[in-house]
């Protein structure tokens, strides 16, 4: 058998030959026919390979070419099994409402409920059965989940299509990305830290100072309401989506008091009456939460698209009453001026922060240098420092200057360089603040310009 | 149609991997009886066999802690480990946590076992092992790996002989699975419950069974007589006789009385026992040769030990709880040769390093017969006992000195503990689910090939010298292996 397959490999010509091993059988190679090989072996010394045959009429060469021709023309045929499971895309590219299937929900562990001892009996109609003997858990019926999720998607789509504001709340660890993404898709708000109790029932006290703006039907900001907006009431969402109702009872209660409808994931241990539109599913698995939140976000996106498309056609659903008067003369210009000033101040603050960071890097390198002067070679130390500082510009420059000289004399010169740098360096934050306070006569409130780290967690906006 | 079939959720869940997880096995008893008395193993000790399914997950999901369970598992214990395998004790508990632990112990043990290349063989009883040359037979031979009570022996008797382990002529078709329980291993209450549960209601079925057996035996007798007279019976004759020879109720009463009477004298070897065993499909009841009844003791624990000893003394003890291979290995033979890249096929398997778990001289000052070795995660007996090793040591002076020293006494100064090089032989799974591995001391030549260095050079030199001189073999060279393996190893 082995011999036959060997022959097969060497081309069609060898096939009709006898497959029995005999003395006359000679191993064929691609490099030449037997006769040529024999001649060459007579001439050339033994142990050297026969030279390559370039004759295109040779049968074996033809076979070889045919084989490669076939390979080139058939290798793209058939299927390739590609990996279809891409969990990293779940947040960035969430499923649309029409993509919701029972299979998807099951793969996302949406059906796994809590231990039976933890259940809330009001969920009985969503529960499919009990699984396990030693550790019984409730199993949520997937068709119910899919139906309720589709209904919730329709509600969100309807709210956003009428210009409503949706607030996505998911305060458990790891839910932030999904919540932010859903809010981004549906043009709503997000909350992934603690709900400040009273933000709805006592909104004027808690969120009253927050910035607001007026937009037209195409979501373009309209200036000129700067004098009226601080007097209007704090915004309230038109719909709240809560991914973990158990921890956000206060929020749901406030929504109930203000007739704000709520959508939420109800695991088997949650009271479903807390929510207007419950979605029975597993709220502990991040994957399940991401699928549900993503589908709701996609529904919001569809609603927004519908609204904007209608607005382009001139069909606008007006808010019943906004209580704003038309802008007074010159108010629009004043608003724009304030905006521009705020923008400039923000740029200044950022520049100052960058300069501070660079100065700190240089100072750090200098301290290291002073401590380990006698122990480590200069260049090595500078490299180390540059690495630790993440390769900032100043550190790299200093690094180069260190590398230039190894002697004591040049060390003094470097000190001079440093001192001159200290002399010429830009102002520090305190100095800059002082300078700004002196320069700016009109005076704007410094508190308005906060660094990104201090950004408010509230996300109410108009 | 039930709810479980009609609902779309149900149809999906039936193919769910989570729902396919098998129920955990009952935990094995960790108490063992040693010469020092009862020894209770620790709660955290690796169990003799896994009871829970081990679960793993693809790397992309592992990064997210997603094992397909109720909630993601914490990173600290699952992601920052080289063996991300877990077993689930509870999906969800009252404390809102998923109860899990690492399953790396059994997963790694299984991997090591596969690397050793040990085939699982049929268990040979302790009493029989020493008596004669009973060959080890793979559990995958056709006459052992069988669950069908009506299976007949295949004609191909050479089946087992092709592999290295020569299969003896199988006398009877064997089974590893029975419908009935193993009565000798039952306790009294358990036995009573079993009797009450379904035996009493099967009286009519039993009478019909006995009647059919009686008819069969009568027909067989008639056929024999017909053959002797030179008039073989046709199928039609047999069909007619089957109706004619059917015993009447009076005859049946007589037959039952005879069966009972013979049982009084013959006990377990009686005809009645055989009939009952066949009717209820009981394992290992009818043993014509066995004369040692199972000892009756007072407490349950003692009874279990007594049963265990009885089982160890007799290979036909309780039937295995699983397939005799326990799914641990699917190798039928160890008659394979490892191929060394430089020295070619080797006569002996590559040696592995075994840890001396218990030396012959224990800390209590007792002198045990055998040292206990830990080979690939399994405890094995050192094949050289106190008496046999000294004899061997005299025969091959230098190479065996080290293993003997290692197994004799624990050297507390030695870094890494006492180690012995062994080569894995065969293994069997006993009726309690414990894997028993047999090992041999490593051959010096195989060890030299394994370790390389000066030792190997010395062996190669000696081989070369012996070849040059002729048959005058040097004392450093191991004697040649069996004739069947001549030409392999270093030549």
What do you see in this structure?
- The complex is a heterodimer of chains A (462) and B (491).
- Chain A has 462 residues and is an alpha/beta fold.
- In chain A, 45% of the residues lie in helices and 7% in strands.
- A five-stranded parallel sheet of chain A has the order 5-4-6-7-8, sandwiched between helices. A three-stranded antiparallel sheet of chain A has the order 1-3-2.
- Chain A starts with a helix and ends in a 23-residue tail after the last helix.
- In chain B, helix 15 crosses helix 16.
- In chain B, strands 10-9-8-11-12 form a five-stranded antiparallel sheet, with helices on one face.
- The longest helix of chain B is centred in the middle third of the chain and has 26 residues, at 203-228.
- Chain B is an alpha+beta fold and 491 residues long.
- Chain B has helices at 3-6, 8-14, 59-62, 75-78, 104-116, 126-129, 188-199, 203-228, 235-244, 249-266, 271-280, 300-313, 386-395, 401-408, 444-451, 453-469; strands at 31-34, 37-40, 54-55, 86-90, 99-102, 339-340, 344-345, 352-358, 372-375, 378-381, 419-429, 435-441.
- The radius of gyration of chain B is 29 Å and the shape is extended.
- Chain B has three domains: 13-104, no CATH class; 183-313, no CATH class; 339-485, no CATH class.
- In chain B, 34% of the residues lie in helices and 11% in strands.
- At the A-B interface, helix 5 and strand 1 of A face helix 2 of B.
- Chain B: Residues 149-161 have a biased composition (Basic and acidic residues).
- Chain B: Residues 148-167, 372-402 are annotated as: Disordered.
- Chain B: One of its GO terms (biological process) is mitochondrial translational initiation.
